[in-house]
Amino acid sequence: MMMAAASPLTARAGEFDDPPSLVGFGGQYTMLRPVRQVAAVPVQTASGDLVELGQFAGRVVLLNFWATWCAPCVREMPSLDRLAAKAPADLAIVPVSVDRDGRAAVERFQRSHRLARLDMYFNVEQRTSHGRGDASAGVGFGLYGLPISYVIDRASHARGYIAGAVDWDSDEAAALLRFYAQGPAG
């Protein structure tokens, strides 16, 4: 599905030769080499249902790992909420909480920070991500700090990540997401 002409992510195909630069408050976007297929790992929805990341195939996914106790995450979440408000249908924003207190902590956080547009997800039994040095089979995303956001293309390939808070309202963030929205599906 192509993005609507009015979308903030719309661009001409081939506008960029390489992904545009995105520098956040704690680092810069780093391409993954080699590109890898996203593992069939589950995340839990706020209603308790399990979904696999592969269910987002056909859409660009901004997969964000965060926690309510993480100060840079607190800084970043309002811009993710604003991005969710204007995101086209073929961009999925998937914030995954790694809070040990689970849904209750996240719901309190959402209310107190007035985050109304983000669907929240949870790291089921720590199978969606791993910390430094404890990668295991079937766990695809390293947490090299919080927050950390991965960009997954329409064909479910993890393309890159940025560790640290990002201003998702910025022109640079929009350009990066636009690059992957208009890029090849595989």
Provide a brief overview of the structure:
The chain has 186 residues and is an alpha/beta fold. It is 21% helix and 26% strand. The chain has one domain: Glutaredoxin, CATH 3.40.30.10.
Description:
- The radius of gyration is 15 Å and the shape is globular.
- The chain has 186 residues and is an alpha/beta fold.
- The chain contains three helices and ten strands.
- It starts with 29 loop residues before the first strand and ends with a helix.
- A hairpin with a 4-residue loop joins strand 9 (148-152) and strand 10 (157-163).
- It has one domain (30-182): Glutaredoxin (3-Layer(aba) Sandwich).
Q: What order do the helices and strands follow? A: EEEEHEHEEEEEH
Helix content: 10-25%
Shape: globular
Assign the CATH topology.
Answer: Glutaredoxin
Total beta strand runs: 10
Q: How many structural domains are formed by the residues?
A: 1
Main sheet? 8 strands, mixed
Q: Work out the strand percent.
A: 25-35%
The CATH architecture can be given as 3-Layer(aba) Sandwich
Number of continuous helical runs: 3
Mean pLDDT: 84
CATH class: Alpha Beta
How big is the Rg?
Answer: 15 Å
Strand order of the largest sheet: 1-10-9-4-5-6-2-3
CATH level 4 superfamily: Glutaredoxin
> What is the SS-derived class?
alpha/beta
Low-confidence runs: 1-16
User: What is the straight-line distance between the termini?
Assistant: 14 Å
Topology diagram in text:
Blueprint: E1 30-37, E2 42-45, E3 50-52, E4 60-66, H1 71-86, E5 91-97, H2 102-112, E6 121-123, E7 129-130, E8 141-142, E9 148-152, E10 157-163, H3 171-182
Parallel strand pairs: 4-5, 5-6, 7-8
Antiparallel strand pairs: 1-10, 2-3, 2-6, 4-9, 9-10
